[in-house]
Every structure is written in C-alpha cells, then in structure tokens.
Amino acid sequence: MTDLIVSERDNILWAQINRETKANSISRALTDRYVEALDELSQRSDLKGLIWFSSSDDLFSGGVDLKRPDGLDDQQASEYRTAIITDLALATLRCPRPIVTLARGRMIGGAVLNALCCDQIMADTTASFQLPEVKIGIGSPIAGSIVEHSASASLARDMLLTARVMSAAEIAQRGAPCTVVTGGDLEEQATRAIETYAQMPPEAFGYMKAWFQKPRIAALEEAMAYTARSRAGKNDEATRAVSAFFDKG
Predict the structure, then answer these.
(1) In this structure, is residue 240 part of a structural domain?
(2) Taking CA 25 as the corner, what is the angle to CA 157 and CA 132, rounded to the nearest 5 degrees?
(3) Whether this model's pTM surpasses 0.90
(4) Number of structural domains, the chain?
(5) Residue among 207, 212, 197 at smallest CA distance from 98
(6) What are the per-10-residue average pLDDT scores of the chain (249 residues)?
(7) Residue 125 belongs to some domain of the structure
C-alpha cells in the first residue's frame, strides 16, 4: 500500500495521506514520496501547485509513525523519527511553488507542523490542531520554532505548554495561515487558493517566497541543532509514554 497517493487533476498535484489503519501517521516512505512530489512540482512549469490532504475526514494524521526500524537503539530511533518530520517541513519551506493543506478532522504533532509550513491551510469546522509533545514528556524546540515563525510566539507557547486541542478558527485568529471554510466545497476552496497563487509569475512568486522563508528555515535549523546537542547520548525514555498517549486515542 502506498503511504502517500499523489495524483494530478487540473494541473494540480493532490497528495493524499493513505494510512488509515496506522492512524494516518507520517512514515519515512510518506515523507520521501512527499519530497518527490514537491521536486516534481518545482520542475514542471505546467503545474499550479500541490494540495496536501488525508484519506480520513475524522483523523487527518496522528503524527509521526512510532514504529522503530530493526537495529536502531533508543537514541537512533528518536533521531530517525525527528528526521521524518524535519525533512517533511524543510521540503515544504524550500519549495518555490504554492502548497495548500486541506484540513478536516484531528491533526496531531508533525502533521500540524507541516501544515503550518504550507502557504495556506484551508480548514473546515471539524479541523483541530494539537501538539502534545510536552504533555507526554518530550520537549520539542523544533515544534516551537515552526509554530512561532509560522504564526506567533504566543501561539507557540500556548500550543506547546498546554498541549490543548485548538480549533482552526483559534489558530487563524492567532496568526496561523489558516482560512476556515464554513460554507461551500472545501476542495473547491483549496483549489481556488492554489489558482490565486498560480496567477502570479512563478519566478517572482518563488523569489519572494524564498525571502519570506529565510528566517523560518534558519530558526528551524537552529532548533534542530539545539535538539541534537541537548539530546546527544541520551536515551529516548518517552517512547512508552508516546505509545500510551496514542493508544488512548
């Protein structure tokens, strides 16, 4: 089964998370396919953009896949999972073309981070967003960096230090690039968002997008380096706590 189904419709790439039996968690294969799709988008001038969405209306994604590859110790497994999300987010931030998240249902952890890295989140009223890392015993400067530089320091502190579930309306009000669609077709609204961006000359759009992303990428890379230094030589003692959190649903 393909973890991410990429199809083309009306010169737009549609990237669908396809792991409903695994809580639509973000796997290494999913990230790799997503990066490939963005590479294709960057190279093909006939494409207008990419829409990232989920196969489920209830659970967009439960976050990073917790499965440990054979042969990895705790430290290596922690680094492996972190790279799945940072590779996803950096690919989104570095892509010069339009990317929109179509959000329905519950979005957790790394899925929230990648959505915030997109140019726009088009969400219906069922969409919710949660970063539970601190609640389950894992501090995440990486998550803090992405939220702060995508929205605001206030939202970052609130999301990370309370781990509460937030609505699309709340994160939009607090600076996130999110539009709440209360009437009409969500797919149509996401398509319109892509087409609005695509009306701009691609070179100028990409040039300005790269400028806006510079401080976001620099902050994320600093957070990645800080995380690597501060966790060096330490075991990932939170693995069982993370598993228990998702088992509770």
Answers:
(1) no
(2) 20
(3) yes
(4) 1
(5) 197
(6) 94 97 96 98 97 96 90 86 96 98 97 98 97 89 97 97 97 97 92 98 98 97 92 57 49
(7) yes
